[in-house]
Amino acid sequence: MEHRLSKRVPGRLGSLLYKRGMPVATGQIRDASRSGLFLATEYAGADIDETVELEFRFPKRDERSFRRLVARVVRKTDKGLGVEFESAGNDTFTISYLLKWLQQHHLPSAYFSVLRQHFN
After folding, report:
1. Structural domain boundaries in the chain
2. What separation in angstroms does the CA of 101 have from each of 28, 41, 51, 63, 95?
3. DSSP state string for 46-112
4. Gene3D superfamilies given for it (predicted)?
5. Class of domain 9-119
6. Beta strand pairing status for 51-56 and 67-77?
7. pLDDT in tens, the chain (120 residues)
8. Whether 66 contacts 98, CB under 8 Å
9. Dihedral of the alpha carbons of 2, 37, 43, 57, in degrees to the nearest 10
10. Quick check: pTM over 0.85?
11. Distances, alpha carbon 30 to alpha carbons 21, 22, 26, 79, 119, in Å
């Protein structure tokens, strides 16, 4: 049984994963909430309860700066990492804007499965 503190917003946004200030992997934010997100990645070197950073940029011409969020790994799967945002060091504006951006740029999952059928 899942115990969510806030609603997940699905989406797709590329991200870099950092450990101890060094980039270690790429991934894609697949869903997010006010308390955390799921990062689809092949990277398996993060441990449960380890602090990581996620860096991303909203793909707009007028938005050139990168945003970074501090998070703690709370779940690992073969498809990626579930992370919970650390309360210290995070900008609540960035989290709110991430949720808003994902909501505005979300494509239904059925759309992606149709594309896979045509290109596989």
Report:
1. 9-119
2. 14, 20, 24, 12, 10
3. --TT-EEEEEE---BTTB-S-EEEEEEEEEEETTEEEEEE-STT--HHHHHHHHHHHHHT---HHHH
4. predicted glycosyltransferase like domains
5. mainly beta
6. antiparallel
7. 455 567 889 999 999 999 999 999 999 999 999 999 999 999 999 999 999 999 998 887 566 678 999 999 999 999 999 999 987 667 888 899 999 999 888 655 444 444 444 343
8. no
9. 170
10. no
11. 23, 22, 13, 11, 22
Q: Which two tokens stand for residue 24?
A: 């270690």
Question: What is the enclosing helix (H) or strand (E) of 13?
Answer: strand 9-19
- Give me the count of residues in the chain: 120
Cα-based distances in Å from 38 to 47, 101, 118, 120: 15, 16, 27, 26
Paired sense of beta strands 22-32 and 67-77, if any: unpaired
Tokens found for residue 43: 């990277």
Contact between 27 and 79 (Cβ < 8 Å)? no
Identify the pLDDT of residue 87.
78
